[in-house]
Amino acid sequence: MDGPFPIITVHGDPYSCGKQHGEKAKKLVRYNVEYYLGLWRRRIGLVREQVLAKASELIETIKDFDTDLLSELRGVADGAELSLEEIIAINSRYEVVWSQMTQLRNECTAMAALPKATESGHTLLAQNWDYLTGVRDSCIVLEVLTEDKPAVVMHTEAGIIGQKGLNSKGIGLVVNAMISDKDRFEPSVPFWILCRRALNSKSLNEALNIVLSTAKAVSSNIILAQARGAAVDIESTPLDTSIIHHERCILVHTNHFIGPRSLSVKDEFVKTAPHSIYRYSLAKDYLKERVGSISKESFKEILRDHFGKPKSICAHEDITVDEDYRGETLASIIFDLESSEILLTKGPPCMGPYHLLQFQSLKN
Questions:
Q1: Where are the beta strands (DSSP E) in the chain?
Q2: Measured between alpha carbons, how far is 234 from 175 in angstroms, rounded to an integer?
Q3: Lowest mean pLDDT among 79-93, 165-179, 258-272
Q4: Does the residue 310 lie in any domain?
Q5: Cβ distance 141 to 6 under 8 Å?
Q6: Is 29 part of a structural domain of the chain?
Q7: pTM, full prediction
Q8: Nearest to 295, CA basis, from 261, 324, 334, 248
Q9: Which of 1, 168, 261, 276 would bridge with 151, disulfide CB 3.0–4.6 Å?
């Protein structure tokens, strides 16, 4: 199967899955580690030893949360011939320095449509993943076939074991970055590890319980959906969580707080990314006008929208800013939760085709 990113398939026990990941994507994993260590040194003055010290503080936290995922991280480290702390550092990149990187905040537009809103009667979930161009060429599609767990397929950065994805129980997950004035670094479950644990779930109830019951040190947003018509948006701060339900069978989220329980914090992201406001309105209004006939083509159209370019839903690199700060839509992804089909672009969706990815493991 051809795709816009390398497809890495791993199988077996958690450690073996991690080791295969590290071996098969070794060059890309090692690149990502060095890229982030260099970025953090240049932009916030954290040297390698400081980053690895922060990462080491998370080992016991991850172990207490999910020993299998810690074993998988060890496997990635061994396969790529790196230290466990280096792999934890990139898996916890959201926490380690996120609140300090005021100019390195890139954005995402995420959305869901339930069966009553779609032309096919299927549940559709989608996201433009807008992020730093420095990892443009070091992403992979990771298929994980772990014993006694649902199969999981994710688009992720090589070496990171949890991001946006779909599993064989029809559960899909997409995300948005959020920042409040209460965000901080402390030993807590890394966001990407939380996402992977949710994707390992056998039911939406289990996935929701994991996300809602796990303490958080930084803000985030997750849309969870399951085939046959359920979708919930979970907008979290270190203080509280808003549960955002669909309106007319659609959900949209960008990078500013919209939940009823966010009034106890100050929204720090929107100050430097006010375009989150119009991206949200544009996507929501577009889908509302098409309720009952929303299709994958509808999602493609709104995900290619250029209002406010380069700070648009289809985000583009701004070459006038420092190279370290440049971002764009690195991938656009659409999940069909009933058919288990994945549509994926490399780069802004206006610039290339959506590739159809079909994994037999997701249909089991």
A1: 7-12, 108-113, 124-132, 139-146, 152-157, 165-167, 171-177, 220-226, 230-236, 241-244, 250-253, 327-336, 341-344, 355-358
A2: 10
A3: 258-272
A4: yes
A5: yes
A6: no
A7: 0.96
A8: 334
A9: 168
- Name residue 67's amino acid: T
pLDDT digits (tens, 9 = 90+) for 28-80: 999 999 999 999 999 888 899 999 999 999 999 999 999 999 999 999 999 99
Q: Is 221 left (phi over 0), alpha (psi -120 to 50) or beta?
A: beta
Greatest distance between any 2 Cα atoms in the chain = 54
Q: Quote the number of domains for the chain.
A: 1
Tell me the one-letter amino acid at 166. Answer: L
Q: 126 Cβ partners below 8 Å, 6+ apart?
A: 110, 111, 112, 174, 299, 303, 332, 333, 334, 335
Q: How far apart are CA 27 and CA 43, in angstroms?
A: 24
pLDDT of the residue at 96: 72
**Crossing angle for the helix pair 67-80 and 191-199, to the nearest 10 degrees:** 110
**227-250 residues labelled b (16+ CB within 10 A) or e (exposed):** bebbbbbbbbbbebebebebeebb
Q: Which of 218, 254, 223, 252 is nearest to 236 (CA)?
A: 218
DSSP lists the bridge partners of residue 294 as 118
CATH of the domain at 264: 3.60.60.10
pLDDT, tens digit (0-9, with 9 covering 90-100), for 162-205: 999 999 999 999 999 999 999 988 889 999 999 999 999 999 99
Q: Are 166 and 153 in contact (CB under 8 A)?
A: yes
Can you tell me whether residue 143 is helix, strand or coil? strand
Cβ(65)–Cβ(214) below 8 Å: yes
Structure tokens at 164: 């946006």
| Domain extent for 118 | 103-363
- Alpha carbons 310 and 326: distance in angstroms, whole number: 11
Instruction: Supply the pLDDT for residue 103.
Output: 55
Asked whether residue 96 is assigned to any structural domain, the reply reads no
Rounded to an integer, what distance in angstroms lies between the CA atom of residue 112 and that of residue 247? 11
Asked whether residue 91 is domain-assigned, the answer is no
